Structure formats: C-alpha cells, structure tokens
Amino acid sequence: LAAGFALSFFAAPYIEQSEFTAFLGSAQSVKMFSPAVVGQAMLFAVVVACLAGIYPAWKASRLSPVEAISYE
Scanning 22, 31, 37, 68, which has the fewest C-beta atoms within 10 Å of its C-beta? Predict the structure, then answer.
C-alpha cells in the first residue's frame, strides 16, 4: 500500500491529462452521487455490520471464560 502511494505520488506529475483520457477511452463522464445517497449507503453499511455482530456477541456473552477456553 505504501509503495503504491509513493509510486503514484511521484508518477502523477509525469502523466499528462491527454494520456489519461486516451487510456480511459469513452469513459470520460463522471457519475456524481448526492450527499443523501452517500449517507444512506453509509447508514445501510453500519446497520448491516451491527446486525452481523449481534449474534456472535450474544453467543459469546452466554459463555463463561473457562468454557470458552476449554474448546481450544
């Protein structure tokens, strides 16, 4: 990750806009999302993550520490 960041940081000034658009081809339009859509997506992700963690947390809260260790 750090190597990719460093490479892009040093290579970016040498890449001209025309070369970049030629690489992309016809995909030059940028799709914009409204802040409401971004917020809804983030809220959905948080709700799904919380729901996915409820059952394992509830199951772990029912075990005693000795019982949890004995399975290893």
Answer: 31
Q: What pLDDT does 51 receive?
A: 94
Is residue 38 within 8 Å of 30, Cβ to Cβ? Answer: no
Q: Which residues of the chain have pLDDT under 50?
A: none
Q: Are 21 and 28 in contact (CB under 8 A)?
A: yes
* Assessment of whether the complete model's pTM goes beyond 0.70: no
DSSP state of 26: T
Query: Which range marks the domain in which residue 10 is found?
Result: 2-70
How many structural domains comprise the chain? 1
For CA atoms 35, 40, 41, 46, give the dihedral sign. Answer: positive
pLDDT at 12: 75
